[in-house]
Design a protein that fits this description.
DUF1989 (chains A, B), 3 helices, mainly beta, homodimer, 5-stranded antiparallel beta sheet, 204 residues
């Protein structure tokens, strides 16, 4: 089921995918054309009640900006990923995946109807694995550029990623992963682009 | 089952409690002695798969610092609470409740063993309602003073709350609420104090 080693998979614009990732394998997320965002969520393969936790990750790394060397933790405080290589240095772990309600509440009237969303795409990506919509928490929004002011105000700026830049994440346990090419105009400077990814086989 | 109206309940140091809160009722959380933190989590009473979401709340309020007038949202993007009165103006919604692993990873060796934790206290508070430990996500850490640097670094400073200051939250749906008097030395300037709370009956 896993690893077409070195094969580059393409996630078309405004869509998503789900797959297994074995402990030790490296997920390479590539911003194929630049300025695109990819929302990632993961669950332990052997227990879907264990999920990637923004709060535990912020706590134990003592930062909201994760980059090379940081470990991403589950709600059970166990390592899920280690970030091995980060070409960009700016990702978001504060905000939830865009959803129908995001477009209703934050976008001009009429935007929401029929609009694809990362939440909807993750729901579809996880459905074959038996993971329910309500289980999807705050996602790691790779390449998303969220600035936080001294007053706490959140400002979504265009990604600083350029074509071909990547984030490499090593799985620290067997995982079910959902990954999107973001659907929200506000996150990727008004463009919709694909996201590429590779799975590198475990070295050890 | 609800509302000893106007009665002040005391949560002893390093402990927690769970209760029902009806739509329209106002939960008043009071820092009885000053410089203490209270972790809050809530679930919809009629569906425990609906929970208070830091990510949806940050998204829709466009800030990480919540205060008077802000609405706190569930993972289903529905209002759970409205903040009616905030005497303090600084609360945290980034970090997870302190747990055994918090004390293992972030505190001096030997701290963790037998140490009470907000996570453990919330687990006990929610158990009678059939809510499982794995369902507890990032909590609203009332009165917790978490500063975020321009570089994203998270710094936990002493609360700025003084004795008797309060946060008032109106329930926007029927809820199960868990609430603690924080157990972590690092959050409350090395002291362990109680937290008081009141439930005001719905006016309308």
């Amino acid at each position: 089921m896993t690893t077409d080693t070195e094969t580059v998979h393409r996630i078309p614009p405004q869509s998503g995918t789900g797959f297994r990732l074995r402990r030790g394998e490296v997920l390479v997320v590539i911003d194929a054309l630049g300025e695109q965002v990819s929302d990632l969520m993961a669950f332990a393969e052997d227990n879907h009640a264990e999920w990637l936790s923004s709060g535990r990750t912020f706590d134990y790394n003592e930062t909201i900006y994760l980059t090379t060397g940081h470990v991403l933790y589950s709600n059970r405080s166990r390592p899920m990923f280690t970030l091995l290589r980060d070409d960009v240095g700016r990702h978001d772990f504060l905000l939830t995946p865009c959803s129908t309600e995001t477009f209703e509440l934050l976008y001009p009237p009429g935007t929401a109807e029929g609009h694809p969303s990362c939440f909807g795409n993750l729901v579809q990506a996880f459905a074959p694995f038996g993971i329910q919509p309500d289980q999807i928490p705050t996602t790691l929004n790779i390449f998303m550029n969220v600035l936080v002011g001294q007053d706490g105000r959140v400002n979504i700026a265009p990604p600083v990623s350029t074509a071909g830049q990547r984030l490499e994440l090593r799985a620290e346990m067997d995982l079910i992963v959902g990954l999107t090419a973001c659907s929200a105009e506000g996150s990727n400077n008004g463009t919709f682009k694909p996201i590429d990814y590779q799975i590198r086989r475990a070295q050890e």
